[in-house]
Amino acid sequence: MALSILKDESSAKDALQELMMRLWEKREQLDAIANYQAFVLTSMRNLCLDMIRKSIHTHEIPDDTEYNAPNPHQQTEQADMINHIGSMIDTLPEMQRTILRMKDVEEMELEEIARIMSMTENAVTVNLSRARKKLRDMIINNRKKENKVYERYR
């Protein structure tokens, strides 16, 4: 499962090792779990998604890449927009948020998302569509509010 999510054998092994360590540290509490397989698979999925989130922020830029630095104003606007959209995504229901990130951020295929989420591809498509629509509506409403504030101070 880790390999299908992370797409890298060494990262998948790291995730497995990390999960084993966490399970070992909480071994006394595991007796209360009714379905071990579901618990372990859900824990692995969540751990892999956390690893992907962390790796997105730490990707290195290749040496041969040209860099055209945006001005400080553009950098601030872009950072604010990314943070704001990220917080909007965080307000989505958990399933929609997870599917949206898997599809649009991690660029996973619908079939793979359906397998990981234990859903049909149709259900994944419906949830993805609803998440994108909610996010689009939130962005449009936010823009309208910003324009009203901006017009007030012109």
Low-confidence stretches: none
Please give the oligomerization state of what you see.
Answer: single chain
- The proportion of residues in beta strands is under 5%
Strand segment tally: 0
Number of helices: 7
User: Helix/strand/pairing class, anyone?
Assistant: mainly alpha
**Overall helicity:** over 70%
Shape: elongated
Give a short account of the largest sheet. Answer: none
The average pLDDT is 87
Give the SSE order as H and E letters.
HHHHHHH
Radius of gyration: 20 Å
Span of the ends, CA to CA? 55 Å
Describe this structure in words.
This protein has seven helices and no strands. The mean pLDDT is 87. Helices cover 74% and strands 0% of the residues. It is elongated, with a radius of gyration of 20 Å. α2 crosses α3 and α5 crosses α7 (121-152). It has 154 residues and is an all-alpha fold. The longest helix has 32 residues, at 121-152. It has helices spanning 2-6, 9-25, 36-56, 72-90, 94-105, 110-117, 121-152.
List the helices and strands and how they pair.
Elements: H1 2-6, H2 9-25, H3 36-56, H4 72-90, H5 94-105, H6 110-117, H7 121-152
Helix pairs in contact: 2-3, 5-7, 6-7
